[in-house]
# Entry
Amino acid sequence: MILRLSIRREDPESGICNYQDFEIPYEDGMTFLTALQRIKEYQDETLTFRHFCRAGICGTCTIYINGFPKLACKEQVLPYVLLEKRVVIEPLKGFKVIKDLAVDNDKIIKKLKEIHGWVRTGSDDCRIPSDLSRKLESAADCILCLACQSYCPQVLEENYAGPLIFAKLYRFLEDPRDKDKEERFVQAVEKGNLYHCLSCNKCNHVCPKEVEPATLIRRLMVYSR
Ligand code: SF4
Ligand code: SF4
Ligand code: FES
# Structure
């Protein structure tokens, strides 16, 4: 079986931007990351993409596959090969392309720093009751893969913080150790335009870790009333 890919290639420095076709022999258990690596090894060493853990943990390999953001290291090639149609591979939408499938995520890192994307402890007591820990678990599972942020239609609005940021804010608002709750509400509701969420659930559908940002956003809305 042959996997046929059409990959968006872009080099902002030279101004090149086109779709290039590749054909890769299918291997058992092949993921899209393996397919990209085979291209780089045997067909075109200039193909640029990000990856690190190869295990769905680091969140660096997210690409668009036929219009949906997916972790390249987790997405199996087989169902696509069986359809016998060319698969379109593109970089994350809404982010500046550095080269080919690698995008610039500086903007989101800056935003995470602005909202203090870490627990700011107000006391020495670091224990979390187990029922609350379970509640926090799904929000804390976020691997910063950017899939939700890239797929959210409202992120096009400049001052809308986006599902990734709201999921983080929710995680810290629920954490009893965090002392910045008031400021986090301001960040979510006023600065982040929480109420501009369309509740379309697109972010829930594309999240590979079942963080369910849209569900957390609805909980944030209840808290902020
Ligand atoms: S539910 Fe809200 S945050 Fe999620 S994709 Fe839709 S508009 Fe964006
Ligand atoms: S909430 Fe889900 S989709 Fe969004 S960045 Fe985190 S892991 Fe990725
Ligand atoms: S390489 Fe780490 S999530 Fe895919």
Summary: The radius of gyration is 19 Å.
